[in-house]
Specification:
Blueprint: H1 10-19, E1 25-27, H2 36-46, E2 52-56, H3 60-69, E3 74-77, H4 82-93, H5 101-112, H6 125-135, H7 140-147, H8 151-165, H9 170-179
Parallel strand pairs: 1-2, 2-3
Helix pairs in contact: 1-2, 3-5, 6-8, 6-9, 7-8
GO molecular function, one term: DNA binding
Keywords: DNA-binding, Phosphoprotein, Transcription, Transcription regulation
InterPro entries: CheY-like_superfamily, NreC/VraR/RcsB-like_REC, Sig_transdc_resp-reg_C-effctor, Sig_transdc_resp-reg_receiver, Tscrpt_reg_LuxR_C, WalR-like
Length: 183
């Protein structure tokens, strides 16, 4: 395996993916500016067959399923062993998906307890992104600029999020996000 490059942020990563060929991308959720989960759908639009392995400090139970639904080929925490990383890279470059035993267990649990999922798992990927940004203190203007949508669109997402989650304010969303370790 050869490391062919590194990107400092999402914009640089997207530019490199447009202009260069890679066998796999290892993507961190916590990128400066836009998160890896926000960048992932754009990567899949530019290069639909390019496998993306998420390597993150965030525990699997918080983001793995959402990342896989957004097009990731696999998800590992930074605490995973180097052997597990190599195994995951080999699997995703062969066109397969990689999930750890704990993610497999979560998938089975979600099948059994579909109605008991946390409130944030009922949000669409975009709603989840907006909720995390609101909970993190970003203004609607900043969110709109980063997501390349209008402020009215962000306000519509906010209203939907509040309704779906049964919350009344941004403070409620922030409290929820902190309690569920989403920030």
């Amino acid at each position: 395996m050869t490391i062919a490059g590194e990107a400092a942020d999402g914009a640089e990563l997207l530019a490199r993916i447009r202009n260069e060929e890679f066998d796999v991308v290892i993507l961190d959720i916590s990128l400066p500016g836009r998160s890896g989960l926000e960048i992932l759908p754009e990567i899949k639009t530019i290069r639909p067959k390019l496998p993306v392995l998420i390597l993150s400090m965030h525990p699997e139970e918080q983001y793995a399923l959402r990342a896989m639904k957004s097009g990731a080929a696999g998800y590992l925490t930074k605490g995973s062993s180097s052997q597990e990383l190599i195994e995951a890279l080999q699997k995703v470059t062969m066109g397969k998906k990689y999930i750890s035993p704990s993610v497999a267990e979560m998938l089975v649990k979600n099948l059994d307890n579909n109605g008991e999922r946390p409130l944030h798992e009922h949000l669409s990927s975009r709603e989840f992104q907006v909720m995390c940004r609101i909970a993190g203190g970003d203004t609607p203007k900043k969110i709109a600029e980063d997501l390349m949508v209008g402020i009215k669109t962000v306000n519509t997402y906010r209203a939907r999020i509040l309704q779906k989650m049964g919350k009344k304010s941004n403070a409620d969303l922030t409290r929820y996000a902190l309690e569920h370790h989403l920030l």
